[in-house]
Each structure stands twice: as C-alpha cells, then as structure tokens.
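R.M. (postdoc): so does anyone remember the format we settled on? I'll just put the structure tokens first.
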C-alpha cells in the first residue's frame, strides 16, 4: 500500500477528496491487478476496485488489501462508477473535489462518468501516477534486470545463427521466440530489424529484405518480464572489403559510441535530462554529425516501453535515484545507413549503473554470413 500512500499525499497537495484511476497500467502499478476493464477509486475510505464478474476471483487473489465493487452483467462500468461516486459524496461533508486522469479519458467517457453527478467538482489531473512510476523500487529494478538479461541472452543466441537468406522479419520472429524460451513474457515492443538503408529510418518496420546482401544490420529489441520492459539497440556490420561496411560507416559508428559514452558519464541524481542529451550532441556536433541525430537521447522504461523522464534537448526533469532510462544516440543517412547504440541505465545515489553489458565496440559488433 506504499504506492497508495504516496498517491494520497499527492492528492492532498492538490486538495483532492477522491481520485479515479482509469488507465489500466496505472491500476496495475498501484494494485498489482493484471486484468483490464477495471477502475480504481481512491478516497477517504479503503481503495476500491470497480470491475466485473470475470475478475472477481483474480482481484481477490492479486489484491487482497483492496475492496472490490463488482458490476452485474446488466450494468456498465460507468454506471457502477457513478454509484461509487455517490457513496463518496454521501460520506463527505460538502462538495467533493474528484480528480480524473485527463490524459486517459475521452470526452465520451467523461460524459458517461459524470452525467447526473451533483455536488461533485471534477478536476483534471495529469501525470500524478506517472510521476510516481518514474522512481523504481527494488522489485521493479530486479524485474528490469531480468528483462534485460532475457533480451541479451536472445541476442547472443540469435545473431550467430543468422543465415544470408534470412529476412528482417525472420530475425525479429526468432528473437521473440528465444526471449520467451529464456523466461520473458514476450517482446516489450515490435523489434526493429533493419538491414542496410532500412536503418536510416529510426522507426523502420522490418519486412522481407534479406540480410545476405547488406553490409550493416541494426537491431532494436527488448523483452518484457513481470510486466517490465527492456530496450536495447546494437548496430552490426560485416567485415571485409567485398561486402564490408564503408569507412564512412565506421567513422560514424565510433562517433556515435563516443557520444553515448559521454552521455552515460553525465548521468547522476540531480542532473537535468537536457544536460545528458547535450553531452551526446556535443560529441556529434564536433564531428559534424549533429544534424543526422533526429530524435531525443532516450526515455524512461518500466511497465511501458516509453515512460518519463524524457531525455531530450527540451527535457528539464532532474534525474533521480531509481529512474531507469535508455541512452540511445543515433545518426541516419537516407538511402545509405543508420546507426543507433542503446543501453538501459539505472540512476543511482552516486551516479549510474548500466544494466546492459553487450559489447558495443566497432570490432565487437560484426556479423558473419
């Protein structure tokens, strides 16, 4: 219930009498419930899960410290929620200030939930749970370590097996299969496997392009373990003169690696995310490659693959111990190649810990066919 206590403290700062959590990821974070179609109502009373009969036993098992209100098959979840609002209103002297997750409610859902609710002031709430989620506890950090481990073991298993006739999609499917065999729930996102010029598109979608005819291969992948995501990228190249990567590629690769290492070294509690981003850009700027870096440096990871904080030139969040972030500078040249190097980094009390340890030197990142 520690997370609920933290949320109640945030509610008090905003002078909220109650708060309805409708985002399924946030419900899971606060309660441990892994189902869907369920809301969480926080008020002066015991936290209340609002759900349906499909999940009655699951809620009892996963959330023994929470009360549940189960709707009948003839009722809708908004009807049940308005009933719960009424109970809050009756138990509270005067008008009730009730927060709603504005980023996660459509206008239609808002109207269904609030219709006919007198003496309730609905308050727009943005990011209150997401801010709590940015700081990981010991269990969350361990789940992320396990997700990183499954992803790395799969990479080490799959890359040596790649055959010239394999397509980008085949590599993607093989990675997912092997990650599952190592205990992962699956991919934390659809892997990006980009051969040759495909890697010049940061969010490339793998297709039927065969690996054999290309000199470079970018793989951006991650595993999910106990709900928690990992997110890694390595850019490989083929050695040799006939089919090997160009000198231009090699020079750019070394620069991207230097930029990533500079950014990682800048990480520590209290450091602005913008400062870390600029540490990478300064290296690329000096080499004349800054214009080829077309995205932010990284992002937080957790129950979702993209969480706060935002690591970019416009980010201004101070890093805090317990945050887990990606550091992924890249350069992209249309029609030629792209390079991205990405690791998952834990912010610690004294600095940082890189959770991923796959080799990333130019000589380490070769693939043989």
């Amino acid at each position: 219930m520690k997370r609920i206590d933290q949320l109640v403290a945030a509610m008090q700062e905003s002078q909220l009498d109650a708060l309805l959590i409708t985002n399924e990821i946030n419900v899971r974070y606060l309660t441990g419930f892994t189902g869907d179609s369920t809301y969480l109502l926080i008020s002066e009373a015991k936290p209340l899960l609002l759900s349906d009969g499909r999940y009655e036993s699951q809620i009892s098992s996963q959330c023994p410290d929470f009360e549940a209100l189960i709707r009948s098959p003839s009722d809708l979840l908004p009807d049940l929620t308005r009933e719960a609002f009424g109970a809050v209103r009756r138990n509270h002297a005067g008008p009730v200030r009730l927060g709603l997750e504005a980023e996660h409610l459509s206008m239609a859902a808002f109207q269904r939930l609030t219709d006919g609710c007198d003496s309730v002031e609905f308050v727009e709430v943005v990011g209150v749970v997401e801010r709590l989620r940015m700081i990981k506890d010991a269990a969350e950090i361990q789940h992320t370590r396990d997700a990183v481990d499954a992803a790395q073991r799969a990479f080490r298993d799959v890359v040596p097996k790649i055959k010239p006739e394999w397509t980008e999609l085949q590599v993607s499917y093989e990675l997912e299969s092997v990650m599952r065999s190592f205990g992962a729930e699956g991919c934390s996102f659809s892997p990006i496997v980009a051969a040759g010029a495909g890697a010049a598109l940061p969010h490339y979608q793998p297709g039927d392009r065969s690996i054999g005819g290309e000199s470079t291969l970018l793989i951006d992948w991650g595993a999910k373990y106990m709900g928690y995501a990992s997110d890694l990228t390595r850019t490989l190249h083929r050695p040799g003169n006939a089919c090997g990567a160009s000198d231009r590629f090699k020079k750019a690769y070394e620069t991207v690696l230097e930029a990533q290492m500079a950014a990682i070294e800048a990480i520590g509690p209290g450091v602005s995310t913008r400062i870390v981003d600029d540490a990478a850009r300064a290296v690329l700027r000096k080499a004349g490659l800054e214009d080829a870096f077309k995205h932010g440096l990284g992002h937080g990871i957790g129950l979702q693959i993209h969480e706060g904080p935002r690591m970019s030139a416009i980010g201004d969040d101070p890093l805090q111990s317990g945050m887990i972030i990606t550091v992924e500078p890249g350069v992209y040249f249309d029609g030629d190649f792209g390079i991205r190097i990405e690791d998952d980094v834990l912010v610690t009390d004294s600095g940082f810990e890189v959770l991923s340890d796959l080799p990333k030197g130019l000589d380490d990142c070769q693939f043989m066919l």
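R.M.: ...and that's the designed sequence above, right after the tokens. Also worth knowing: The two ends are 53 Å apart (CA to CA). The longest strand covers residues 96-101.
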